[in-house]
UniProtKB/TrEMBL annotation:
<dbReference type="GO" id="GO:0032259">
    <property type="term" value="P:methylation"/>
</dbReference>
<dbReference type="InterPro" id="IPR007848">
    <property type="entry name" value="Small_mtfrase_dom"/>
</dbReference>
<keyword id="KW-0808">Transferase</keyword>
<dbReference type="InterPro" id="IPR002052">
    <property type="entry name" value="DNA_methylase_N6_adenine_CS"/>
</dbReference>
<dbReference type="InterPro" id="IPR046977">
    <property type="entry name" value="RsmC/RlmG"/>
</dbReference>
<dbReference type="Pfam" id="PF05175">
    <property type="entry name" value="MTS"/>
</dbReference>
<feature type="domain" description="Methyltransferase small">
    <location>
        <begin position="202"/>
        <end position="371"/>
    </location>
</feature>
<dbReference type="Pfam" id="PF26049">
    <property type="entry name" value="RLMG_N"/>
</dbReference>
<keyword id="KW-0949">S-adenosyl-L-methionine</keyword>
<keyword id="KW-0489">Methyltransferase</keyword>
<protein>
    <recommendedName>
        <fullName>Ribosomal RNA large subunit methyltransferase G</fullName>
        <ecNumber>2.1.1.174</ecNumber>
    </recommendedName>
</protein>
<dbReference type="InterPro" id="IPR029063">
    <property type="entry name" value="SAM-dependent_MTases_sf"/>
</dbReference>
<feature type="domain" description="RlmG N-terminal">
    <location>
        <begin position="1"/>
        <end position="180"/>
    </location>
</feature>
<keyword id="KW-0698">rRNA processing</keyword>
<comment type="function">
    <text>Specifically methylates the guanine in position 1835 (m2G1835) of 23S rRNA.</text>
</comment>
<dbReference type="InterPro" id="IPR017237">
    <property type="entry name" value="RLMG"/>
</dbReference>
<dbReference type="InterPro" id="IPR058679">
    <property type="entry name" value="RlmG_N"/>
</dbReference>
């Protein structure tokens, strides 16, 4: 198991979801650089540290025994990784306070450590929310691997925190060190909204929602071909994003019971608000989760899925494959998984390994809609 060694701790850390013989580590040189910099500054036991976007808990777990640590991020899988990595290293779950990114972190923080997220809108929202949360003399340091660190990240730090100084690159990682100055409070530009014509919906999208400015083209290809099954079916929108697939299905099928699940807290927040705007108090289970891992076996009639093809900066189909396996386990015999995906991803062949039958329902030059029957 990979060991993450820093001046604060030596930890065994794993990513989530766990994969056998996973070649990827739960930490990188940017995590190491951040912690080495913090150690050089000095860290007392009563220092209040806020960690933002700690992918798998490497930063928060390293500091759990050394300071008062709060961690906040938008990934439910990241939260699970933090909990499991704390337990794996004999650290109490209560050693780190976790706050989902859908909630505002409250506190007076002396040190803020930020892993620059892939979505800069999330970084912007987090920096806006730091207003009034920094103690006198606080420091704010962001980090990333150079190849994933856009110039705009430094611009956002200067806009919302104060003067920013980039560090030299070390092991292909770089720090962005910001000195807080008094600035007026700023109204957040998030959530954003866009209107859908069919069905007629105004959709709310919080800062880290995929395709926040408009409907993504995969979902656009899927919507006209949603299954027409009527009746009191139990249906899940797996990886629901802002909830548009589940909401559209529910509007056309008033007796259906819907579950909407996503690993992004901000996606779930958006889906809840969009569901209420479109369907009022109609019951639905809308939750952050590790896909359908917690769904009882043989409990769903239909699963709708527009699966992701990346986890943070890592591109691959391992998350989609895992979602397909979860869907098969959760479906009743004869139940169906409906999927939209890029043609080149070859989901048809992958689904055939799991399901009794796979049909192509529709196609565009770029996307295919597939129906897999258990």
């Amino acid at each position: 198991m990979p060991i993450f060694a820093t001046p604060f701790a030596q930890l065994e850390l794993l990513r989530q979801p766990e994969q056998q013989d996973d070649p990827l580590q739960a930490f990188d040189a940017a995590d190491e650089y951040l912690l080495n910099h913090l150690h050089e500054q000095g860290l007392a036991a009563d220092t209040r540290v806020l960690v933002l976007n700690d992918s798998f808990g490497a930063l928060a777990a390293s500091l759990a025994s050394c300071a008062q640590v709060t961690s906040s991020g938008d990934s439910h899988l990241g939260h699970i990784a933090l909990q499991r990595n704390l337990a794996r290293n004999g650290l109490a779950d209560a050693a780190v306070r976790f706050v989902p990114a859908s909630e505002t972190v409250k506190g007076s923080f002396d040190r803020v450590l930020i892993r620059v997220p892939k979505t800069l809108a999330l970084l912007e929202e987090q920096l806006i929310r730091l207003h009034g949360q920094l103690a006198p003399g606080a420091t704010v340091v962001a980090a990333g691997m150079v190849k994933h660190l856009p110039h705009a990240a430094g611009d956002l730090l200067e806009k919302y925190i104060g003067p920013m100084q980039p560090s030299l690159a070390v092991k292909k990682a770089r720090l962005l060190i910001a000195t807080p100055v008094d600035k007026p409070a700023v109204a957040s530009p998030y959530p954003t909204r866009y209107e859908l014509d069919q069905p007629r919906l105004m959709l709310i999208n919080h800062a880290n929602v995929f395709c926040r400015e408009g409907l993504d083209i995969g979902t656009r290809a899927f919507l006209p071909h949603l299954p027409r099954s009527l009746g009191a079916l139990k249906v899940a929108d797996l990886g629901c994003g802002n909830g548009v697939l589940g909401i559209a299905y529910a509007l056309a099928n008033p007796q259906a019971e819907l579950t909407l699940v996503d690993e992004s807290y901000m996606a779930v927040q958006s889906a809840r608000e969009n569901w209420q705007a479109a369907l009022g108090e109609r019951p639905a289970d809308i939750r952050a989760g590790d896909g359908l891992a917690e769904q009882p076996a043989d409990s769903l009639d239909l699963v709708l899925c527009n699966p992701p093809f990346h986890q943070q900066q890592v591109v691959g189909d391992f998350l989609a494959w895992r979602m397909f396996v979860q869907a098969r386990n959760a479906l009743v015999k004869g139940g169906e998984l409906w999927v939209v995906g890029n043609r080149h991803l070859g989901y048809h062949a992958k689904l055939k390994r799991l399901f009794r039958g796979v049909e192509q329902v529709a196609a565009t030059p770029k996307f295919v809609v597939l129906k897999a029957s258990k």
